[in-house]
Fold this sequence. Notes:
Layout: H1 2-9, E1 17-22, H2 27-37, E2 48-54, H3 62-65, H4 68-79, E3 82-84, E4 96-99, H5 107-115, E5 121-123, H6 131-144, E6 148-149, E7 167-175, H7 191-201, E8 205-213, E9 216-223, E10 228-234, E11 240-246, E12 251-257, H8 261-274, H9 281-299, E13 305-306
Parallel strand pairs: 1-2, 1-4, 2-3, 4-5, 5-6, 7-10
Antiparallel strand pairs: 7-11, 8-9, 8-13, 9-10, 11-12
Amino acid sequence: MLWLLLTCVCFVTAADLRLGIIGTDTSHATAFTRVLNDPKDANHVPGAHIVAAWRGGSPDIEESAKRVDQFAAELKEKWGVKIVESIAQLCPDVDGLLLESVDGRPHLQQFQQAAECGKPVFIDKPLASTLADAREIARLARERGIPWFSASSLRYSPIAELRGPDVVSAMMWAPGPLEPHHQLDLSWYGIHGIEMLYTVLGMGCVEVSRVSSPDSDVITGKWSDGRLGTVHLQRPYGRYGGVAYLKNQKLNAMPDISFSYPALVREIVKFMETKTPPVSNAETLEIFAFMDAAQRSAAQGGALVKLEGR
């Protein structure tokens, strides 16, 4: 065991940024650590190293409760990560923080504590479990001068190749399982498909409709310039893909795509170095306004609903 820990520690170089993890109840915690801490990994991302982590965990969500200790043990025993007893204890050890808790509900409270460190923060999806909490995170960050961004790894998948000035509408498909504790139900998993849509269309949605059934959701947004965007979410799980329709009546399609953790981790490292978010905070907040409008639409039987503030 001692040999293993020493082997892990020797991977750190003087130039590496030291990063800390908040929440070890998601596979992202170990996946991101592997590509950062193991230079022999085929997908290794240089420039940063996970050095410390705080467990966190949500006892009322099975996906969290059954994995938090398992992933914490892997971080400690396999990658030499120091496990601390509070978020505050991360502050002196790190140059930046990854808020990884799988449950979006405690993100605001955890970000409030992370802000005390005065370091940049990447907040994994979902940013929060409500639009109000998402906006409060953004307000607090502005007040404290804390750089932050949030993104799905699907944003850095081949779906980005569908972007372009000739796109007039787009349709994405993705998994859409729900989690009963999250007030904004699409924030739990549907956010992946919605981030894909925003990757292609960008900001500017003004109104949304949503029709739901036990095994799927169809959400359609209208942009201020007339473009349309649709997300089809399947339950419990399904594949990821998308199609963009162009002005010349042709289309570009990415029918079957997958996550790209290393691509997202590269963006995280760059963000920690530059303090400049690769996804604007305004776009992330609009995504939450989109999901909030979609939920209000579903409650009204699929009526067209304006985004809050539009």
